[in-house]
Each structure stands twice: as structure tokens, then as C-alpha cells.
């Protein structure tokens, strides 16, 4: 058994889990954060992407014990004060989803893309960096459009926060 302690969406949590417990299992089963999805057993789909210490990670590829001591953010931790995160809002406005299964992972990956490439990230870079996220419905066009729009909005909020 392993003792894990981490911040999940800003809240300190501690638990004793089986050594083999994956981070995605810990989030879904121990914390009831079921917005993080499991879409494959081959680490290919990206439905399970969360942020660990600010970086996108496929939570099916990491043990809960490996995340101990980290700050973990899931899709449930993005909205604040009754407002969607700008990237969530962009997916809503630009129809970046159909069934929604891949969407939490897409949005968490998208925010990481913007954090790495900035608010003017181009379409080619977005498509390249989304290679680890599979959508079975949309054909990606509106997802890419949503991310480009969300990136601009995130740039605006970052600027406002700095002013
Ligand atoms: S469930 Fe993690 S990559 Fe598919
Ligand atoms: S919206 Fe259905 S899998 Fe992407």
C-alpha cells in the first residue's frame, strides 16, 4: 500500500491506496472526479489528461503514488466563480464537441498547448500537439477552431490579470 498526499483542484487530499493504483483511478474512484475519462487501455486516446504541477499528463500513465506531493488539476477544477474557463467557453461557442467524451482531455491538453506556445498559437502547432488526443466524433476542425479562439481569450485574461 502507498500513502499519497496531493492537492487536487486546490484541496489537500490524503489516502492510502494500492501501490498499483493509477492516478486516473484515484481521481475517479477515490475522489469521484469522473470528468477525467478512460477511453483506452493503450495510453493513446488522451481522454484522461489532467494537469500535474501545471503540465498536461495522461493520468492513465502515472501511478497515484508518483503524483504524491503534486498539484493536480482536473476538468472540474477549471471553472471558477460561476464562470467557465475561457477554453471551456471557447469549446461551447465554437461547437468543439459532439458526444463530449474526449472533451475534458482535449480542454486540459489545449490549455497546456496555450501555456507552452502562447495566445497566438497557430493551427499547425495545435494539430501537431493534439496528436495524443483522439476524438471519435468531430473530425477535429471545430476543436482546432475552439482552441485557437480559447488561446486568444486566455491571452486576454492573462493580460488583464497582469494589469
Ligand atoms: S485513457 Fe489515458 S490515454 Fe486513453
Ligand atoms: S466529441 Fe465524441 S469523442 Fe470527441
Task: Write a brief caption for the model.
This protein is α+β, with helices and mostly antiparallel strands and 163 residues long. The protein has 5 helices and 5 strands; from the N terminus they run ββαβββαααα. It has a 5-stranded mixed beta sheet with strand order 2-1-5-3-4, sandwiched between helices.
The description of the largest β-sheet is: 5 strands, mixed
CATH superfamily of the largest domain: [2Fe-2S]-binding domain
Number of domains: 2
| CATH level 3 topology of the largest domain | DNA polymerase, domain 1
Which compounds are bound in this model? FE2/S2 (inorganic) cluster
- Uncertain residue ranges: none
Q: Helix amount, in percent?
A: 25-40%
Q: What is the strand arrangement across the widest sheet?
A: 2-1-5-3-4
Encode the helix/strand succession as letters: EEHEEEHHHH
Mean pLDDT: 95
Which architecture of the largest domain would the CATH scheme give at its second level? Answer: Orthogonal Bundle
- Radius of gyration (CA) equals 16 Å
Distance between the termini: 48 Å
Total number of helical segments?
5
Which class do the helix and strand fractions yield?
alpha+beta
